Amino acid sequence: MLMVSKAYQLSTSILGVFVCEVLLTSWKYIQLRTHTLTTPYLTGDLQSRWFDFGGDTIIRADKYVRLTSDRPSQQGWLFSRVPLTATNWEIEVEFKIDGNGNLHGDGMALWVTKQRATQGPVFGSTDQFEGLGIFFDTYKNNRPGVTFPYVMAMLGDGKTKYDHGNDGKANELAGCSARIRKADVPTKARLTYFQDSYLKLDLQYRREDEWTECFTASDVRLPSVAYLGFSAETGELSDEHDIISVSTKSLYEHNTASGSGGRPGHASDSTSWGGKKGKGYDPNRGKSRGWGWVFIKLVLVVVGCIGAYVGYTAWRTQQRRSRF
Ligand SMILES: [Ca+2]
Fold first, then answer.
1. How do strand 150-157 and strand 130-137 relate by DSSP bridges?
2. CA dist., res. 67 & res. 109, Å (int)
3. Is residue 225's pLDDT more than 70?
4. Domain check: are 295 and 220 in the same one?
5. Where, by residue number, does the polypeptide cross the bilayer (predicted)?
């Protein structure tokens, strides 16, 4: 009988500790200036400190980085100079795809790959890449039953070729149809990655500040050293593919009980690339991100309290019985 009551005591205290742990852990972020790009894009010497660009890419300092103009047979790219070493991260990019033709193409790509700055046939960048490619495909080559534009993710192993003829059907990890071309509001993509856990893509194209989930893929493992890039391509048909801004954040667990980062390693990793610690930290943004976690915590607290109450009641019953 004593054993049973001890077990109840133990389980309730474990539950209590768990609830406290959840309450005190929250997600913080550090802005990675190395992977962030905004107007005027270039410094005085017409270079970008943290990005290289090439191919047909042109930059207009007050407006955009234009990967392709609305002309046939163009390829342009933009790649970070240093790899993205953060364990968990979020990339938000504002882009614009627009043009005059009734028919248009071919689309653009976001890359998190081992390769960088190499022009090629997959939306302007190299094929047989290793890492992640997100394709914003505006021209349907051959995918019956799928509405275009189509946004999809491919995980490249360094050997597999992009399935060009079927718009990447053979390579698709996940994807969605979305009217990301000529939208009424600024079009944005937000890619969130938690190492070895999941990859999530949200898109803004319907209304401002309204994010539509494109996909969440689990068990995604990306190369530990990978560069962030963008590229675009036109063929016979063309479009303007513009990058307006890029904002990247390193996400890390913050445990308020110990007063330090849950995993200090990657917080300092990212600051070593990101420059001065906390420079880009926006407390308002931090707060607005917190609501999802607050809700989850609330649910866990309620579950924890019910569990604790049930455990305690059962333990008391046992105590009473053992007295008689
Ligand atoms: Ca296509």
1. antiparallel
2. 10
3. yes
4. no
5. 291-315
Domain co-membership, 256 together with 218: yes
Residue 35 DSSP symbol: G
- Give how many domains the chain has, as a whole number: 2
Question: How confident is the model at residue 14, as a pLDDT?
Answer: 56
Distance 72 CA to ligand 1 centre (A): 15
258 or 279, higher pLDDT: 258
Radius of gyration in angstroms for the set of CA atoms belonging to the chain, rounded to a whole number? 24
Q: pLDDT tens for residues 305-318?
A: 777 888 777 777 77
**CA gap 244, 38 in Å, rounded:** 7
- CA–centroid distance, 84 to ligand 1, in Å, is 28
* Claim to verify: residue 319 and residue 194 sit in the same structural domain: no
What separation in Å is there between the alpha carbon of 170 and the centre of ligand 1? Answer: 13
Q: Which domain holds residue 157?
A: 32-281
The tokens of 114 are what?
């081992």
> Whole-number mean pLDDT of the chain?
84
Chain-centre distance of CA 90, in angstroms? 4
Residue type, 279: K
CA of 31 to the centre of ligand 1 (A): 33
**From the CA of 119, how far away is ligand 1's center (Å)?**
18
- In a 13 Å sphere around the CA of 323, the CA atoms on its Cβ side amount to 6
